[in-house]
Amino acid sequence: MTNVPMSSEPLARAGLHHLRANSGSLLALGILLILLGTFAVGSAALATVVSVVLFGWLLFVGGCVQLLHAFMARNWHGWFVPLLGSILQIVVGLLIVFHPVAGELTLTLLLAVGLMVGGMFRIVAGVAMDLPHRGWVFLNGLITLILGVMIWRHWPLSGLWVIGLFIGIDLIFAGWTCVMLGLAARKPAAA
Q: Could you check whether the bond before residue 10 is cis, i.e. omega within 30 degrees of 0?
């Protein structure tokens, strides 16, 4: 049996047709995301509280669903482990909902540690491994490490705004991606 490469051209045409048909809604979505992101960056503290409280509620609801599942599977000999996990998730979710500032501080500190550790791993990989374009891996690790150190050095104050700022920046870039895709889809196809 031979491997015949499938042409991606029909698939690309179908995708382009879909983008063209929905370019207006893609532009509208992009503009909305840019506005939300700009608001989140401008009100990073509020965006942080809202996102942390939402995260707490998601943990709580997820824990309740898992608790229900644990009771439904109580005839299984290992049902106690999911039961304990669900109770822990419910408690953590409620703690975050009722103490959002403590949740902000904890999550921000975890984010800083994660960025620092991830940055160090990328730096080591960029130096030690024979990777193509390993300078980019090293640079990515260095920037990630610096971001983590900056957040950690300004902690606990950074815990009040970092999450909202990062969410806002992500929303802005996602919005511009949608806008640019929507505008590109409106251009006539090259012959």
A: no
Tokens for 159? 């815990």
Mean pLDDT of 115-136: 86
Which of 17-20's residues contact partners 24+ apart within 8 Å by CB, and which partners?
Answer: 19/181, 19/182, 19/184, 19/185, 20/185, 20/186
**What is the distance between the alpha carbons of residues 107 and 85, in angstroms, rounded to a whole number?**
19
User: pLDDT band for position 23 (50/70/90)?
Assistant: confident
Instruction: Label residue 189 by pLDDT band (50, 70, 90).
Output: low
The predicted model scores a pTM of 0.68
Q: Tokens in use for 103?
A: 């949740």
Distance of alpha carbon 48 from alpha carbon 108, whole angstroms: 10
Place of tokens 């809202």: 50
Q: Which two tokens stand for residue 179?
A: 């806008």
Residue 114 near residue 120, CB atoms below 8 Å: no
Residues in Cβ contact with 62 at an 8 Å cutoff, skipping those fewer than 6 apart: 89, 93
Quote the CA–CA distance of 11 and 22 in Å, as a whole number. 17
For residue 133, the 8-state DSSP code is T
pLDDT tens sequence across 51-91:
999 999 999 999 999 999 888 887 777 778 888 989 999 99
